[in-house]
């Protein structure tokens, strides 16, 4: 009887240990995700945007609003793509509600809209129904020409 009870205690301890390991993994993933999401840079003025485009070699502008569920869901995927495959591209957010002048200057009236600039020139424009794969393929060639 004691052996069965002892094995049950050991099994319970092993399960606790395994659950604790999984918990630590999840905490680490959530922490990394939050760090990724907090690296967002929000552009508020045309002057600021012009300065960024003049000084940065590669820039991705992500136009959306906080109320756009598609934009909210798609933004982390775009950030992960840029951070993993195209780390030299700088990611910037433009909120259409707070920066309508910037949106008008770049004809970005639909959300989400992605503009990619290489050497200060708009190279890629994607709006509304955007595929991560298509975005990756569109960015790949000019990125390789400039950075490799």
Automatic annotation (TrEMBL):
Classification via Pfam families: Thioredoxin
Segments forming domain Thioredoxin: 45-140
Residues passing through the membrane, by range: none
Annotated protein name in UniProt: Thioredoxin
Source species of the chain: Lutibacter oceani
